[in-house]
Amino acid sequence: MTEPVSLIVSQTPVPRMAVGPTKATEPHLAVVYATASGEVACFEGRPMKPSQQMFSKYRTRYEVDMRPYQRSAVLGRNPLISRDGVHAFEVTVDFAFRIDGWQGAEDFVRSGLHDPLPVVHGHLVSLFHGAGQRFPIEDSFGLQHHLNQLCSQPVVFQEGLKLYGCQVHVRPDAKSLSHLESLIEAGRREHLGAAEHIPNRGAVVRQTEIEAIQQRAQIEATARQADALADTLTTSDGLIRHYLVTNPHDAAGAFEMRRQLEEARAATAELQNQRALGLFQVMAEKGLIQAGDLEHMRQQLTGTVGRATGGDAALPPLATPQLPAARPWDPPQLPPADQTPAPAGYTPTLVSPTVGPSAPPGPLTRTTPTALIYLVVDESLDRACLDELQRGLDALHSALSDAPDVSRVLRLGVLGMAATTEQRLSLAEVGPGTRTPLLMGRRGLSYSQAFRTLRPLIGQDVTVVKNDGAQVLRPLVYFLTGGAPDEGTAWRGDHHDLTDTDRNRAAPHLIALGFGRAETQAVRSVATRPEFGFMAAPHQDAASAAHSCAAFLRDSVISYGQRLASGEANFSINPPDGFRRAEDAL
Asked: Is 22 a residue whose pLDDT tops 80?
């Protein structure tokens, strides 16, 4: 509040034996008399006459200021906290007050007050208490309007004061104002970044096109050079001639290469000659050479020495004797597709949703099917569980990036499930350049929202992957939940719409993992097969169960991808550590 204001201008005893007229008063002052017992009287603000004072019962005379006063106050010690409970408003009140008539002057003297400001301050604090909690820190004008409505009417206090003309001004305090300025600046940067994104993107696209043209030109030039030098670079002599053409200033170096080449050829010829003669001597000593073989062996020995010295002599082709019953090897015929024995376990089927006009028939090719895998992760879990699951996603991303043969046959998508379901990673072939999905803790849990999001998303992804020419297996959805859904059992209809193959041509299989506060019956019902539903042991804490789920996701997806890459489409699954089948836990 502002400086104190004293409305009691003077306080004097009433004289008994006064001679002459009584003390006059100024027009804005009212005279109030009080007895020794506390009785108070005001004779319309006029002082008593000397005759009245002589026999009066009043002992004290008060002069009360009746003028109106204007003051301003800042509620600094009692700030109004905003809706978030962190930020505060700065409230300034301009107000007027005065003594409310002769009766007000009596009441003010009777109250024993001198300064009326504490009464006004207490009234304003009580009137405004808790009003800030109805407004966010950004809506200071809304709070200002509300407070002005609260104090729009004059108020008369029992102390004889009248408060009127209140005008409230509200703004965020210094810390809150700095916070709001930061948000506004961030918004400006976001808008500026969005505006600059289009030209920046265009520049990147143009630069990429230029680099692609340069790369194609370089490849074509390299190919032309390779064609031109195809016959030159296949022999040692050709390489030396090419060096001399490209480095005409280094003729000495070319001649030195030629000399070294001749020396190497001579040394090789000498060694080959010695070996051939030694072999001939051994065969002659052992009587292994007949007269008819001499000419043939002479040609062979001559060719060997000629090749060692860089000549063009070649061995004459040897006639291969044909056995009477010999014939080319016939490779075994593969069994027809419908007669291939099915592997043990669950084998995903190919999906073929209606995706528009079919492609013209062409030659059949054998390609590795592609598996679409979706991870639906409960983001309403506590931070410890989310950290365990995030580490599992990071490990899965790293493993797929390091195994391109496995990643090639898989497409991975990640969704975060809470009150709403949001994509954390769009379906993609995971590689070193694929971003790692990040989980975000949120409130609420709705199975229905997850199933409603999955149905159109899977249908669109299947269409896109099939249009790329891939065979698509029936999608797999890993459904991780650590709580009970907010909608009770109302999600079952959406679950049926997603998994019913009559309604949804791209209906997936759901593998459900429950822990923490998850309901066993719900986990069993979410899984599309009895062996696809698993529950953590009742004594296992949620963070430990989340760790087991993270390891299970990594190992299960990688193992399935390895089997697909090796040509085996069989899918089998074992429960995570500490889990058991949900139907066994009922």
From this structure: no
